[in-house]
Amino acid sequence: MTFSGSQLTALDAPLLGVNIDHVATLRNARGGRFPDPVAAALLAVEGGADIITFHLREDRRHIRDEDVVRLKEAIAVPLNFEAAVTDEMLDIIERTAPEHVCLVPERRQEVTTEGGLDVAGQFNRIQDACARLAAAGSRVSLFIGADPVQIEAAAKAGAPCVELHTGPLAHAWWDADQAGLQRELTRIQEGLRFARSLGLRTHAGHGLALTQSEPGQIGHVSSTALVAALPDVAELHIGHALIGHAVFVGLRQAIADFKAEAIRARKSSPA
Ligand code: PXP
Questions:
Q1: Helix/strand/coil for 13
Q2: CA separation for the pair 5, 10 (Å, rounded)
């Protein structure tokens, strides 16, 4: 049996936050307006995305300020605004008033968010940010490693949610490192359980994928399935591999559309 995305939202599964940053990356590669991440977000909602996630980075390498304004106007499902804990970002979040915020660490040189937030090490700053964003009406989540020290600090800082970093699990999965995969899965499982025991809502994300090589590949469990199966995961946030998957499932149709356009043009040309 196959399901459409919107049917899946009705089932007992974690909510899916679709991260659209990589559509903006593709747009920015040519500096124009296409493909538009806001149009992609609308399509994602049509397809069953429960939440639209985006990261406004300090260097604006993918999502830009005007995208945030347009997302706020256009998107009916909750927006999950990922940002570093800086005064500039906190100001923009307050102005935008997204339903959800996920505070992440950010280093300019990194390709993607590499580690989790050091909540214990920057406790006062993060506690203040949590209070400020809660006062602005946003539900705050802290993106952290599955480390009891960080989980406890997140609860003390007043965040209602944590998102556990699944990057190390995703790496082990890509490397087919069974021992590493089992170790990371157990770490995430225990982290989720501990966070729930402190009253936190628990999310997970980063690096999760559907297939190791080709669409339709069978005979293995995806990293998305491994994490989604954990009963304490209330939300998954997925971007890169989901947009990558869309390339594979959409490429056939895209070629048909461009060929049809060329054939139509030839047919209607006078000579
Ligand atoms: N969750 C957080 C907090 C992130 O920073 C990211 C990357 O922007 C993701 C989830 C999604 O990660 P990926 O693009 O690898 O699926």
A1: coil
A2: 9
How far, in whole angstroms, is CA 164 from its chain's centroid? 12
Residue identified by tokens 């869309």 is 246
**Which of 62, 101, 112, 235 gets mutated to test ligand 1 (max ligand atoms within 8 A of its CB)?**
112
Distance between CA atoms of residues 129 and 87, nearest Å: 9
pLDDT, averaged per 10 consecutive residues of the chain (271 residues), comes to: 50 91 98 97 98 97 98 98 98 98 84 84 98 98 98 98 97 92 97 98 97 60 95 97 95 98 92 67
pTM tops 0.90, yes or no: yes
User: What confidence score (pLDDT) does residue 6 get?
Assistant: 54
For residue 193, the Cα-to-chain-centroid distance in whole angstroms is: 21
What is the homologous superfamily of the domain 15-268 according to CATH?
Aldolase class I (3.20.20.70)
Q: Which atom of ligand 1 is nearest to the CA of 102?
A: 3
Residue 128's nearest CA partner among 100, 149, 156 is 156
* Protein residue with least CA distance to atom 5, ligand 1: 113
**Residues 6+ positions from 271 with CB-CB distance below 8 Å:** none
Q: Would you please indicate which residues are annotated as catalytic (active-site) residues?
A: 55, 82, 206
- Ligand 1 centroid, distance to 239 Cα (angstroms): 6
Instruction: Give the distance (Å) from ligand 1 centre to CA of residue 127.
Output: 22
User: What type of residue is 89?
Assistant: M
